[in-house]
Design goal:
Layout: E1 5-7, H1 13-24, H2 28-33, H3 37-56, E2 61-64, E3 69-74, H4 82-91, H5 95-109, E4 118-125, H6 134-149, E5 153-157, H7 163-168, E6 172-173, E7 186-190
Parallel strand pairs: 4-5
Antiparallel strand pairs: 1-2, 2-3, 3-4, 5-7, 6-7
Helix pairs in contact: 1-3, 4-5
Length: about 190
């Protein structure tokens, strides 16, 4: 079932950005940051590339053969640096909203497993190809790698509609992360598998 998923490299960056832009265009959290299509088109692909950079060095960017879907995974000890996020925030059209979202993400991070763990940073399926098992294939490919380490996996979903999908894959909701005036985020953990 995972035959059509592969480990992407930096030369695939534009295709990764493209599928993530398509998938996140209607995401409630992304729309809260900016519902202006021109601003989204200008800024979101740079955000995806920033998130992908640390993962590329650890074979953590996965895609389907025709780029209908992609995922970005961080192994234990790897994450987006505070410096990279701060620099990106200063370069966008909506720094105040992005800073507020950063505060929300930090609140979610307090619910991470205390020890070493994997992180699913982003996953996306082109809306034209959703509900065809592509997200499941991407997750199975990534989770198989995580499971070889026996470590837990953390994610913070930006869309409540995706929670049943993650639950079917063994994730448990930790809490609904709510902060006044901000969208809701959903930190989830999947315990390590031996």
């Amino acid at each position: 079932m995972t035959g059509s998923v592969f480990v992407a490299t930096r030369r695939n960056s534009r295709d990764i950005q493209s599928v993530m832009d398509k998938a996140f265009a209607q995401d409630p959290t992304v729309q809260w940051v900016s519902d202006d299509p021109e601003v989204f088109a200008r800024e979101h692909h740079r955000y995806v590339q920033m998130c992908a950079e640390p993962a590329f060095d650890h074979n953590g960017v996965h895609a389907t053969a025709d780029f209908e879907g992609a995922a970005i995974w961080y192994p234990p000890g790897i994450s987006l640096s505070d410096e990279a996020f701060a620099a990106f925030t200063q370069s966008v059209s909506f720094p105040d909203r992005l800073n507020a979202l950063g505060t929300l993400a930090e609140a979610c991070d307090r619910h991470r497993p205390s020890g070493p763990h994997w992180t699913l940073e982003l996953i996306a399926v082109d809306p034209a190809f959703q509900n065809k098992g592509i997200g499941a294939r991407l997750m199975e490919f990534g989770l198989a790698i995580c499971d070889r380490s026996g470590l837990p996996v953390f994610l913070a979903s930006s869309n409540s509609a995706n929670l049943p999908f993650y639950r079917r894959l063994g994730f448990s909701l930790v809490t609904d992360m709510r902060m006044p005036g901000l969208p809701v985020m959903y930190p989830m953990i999947r315990e390590g598998r031996a």
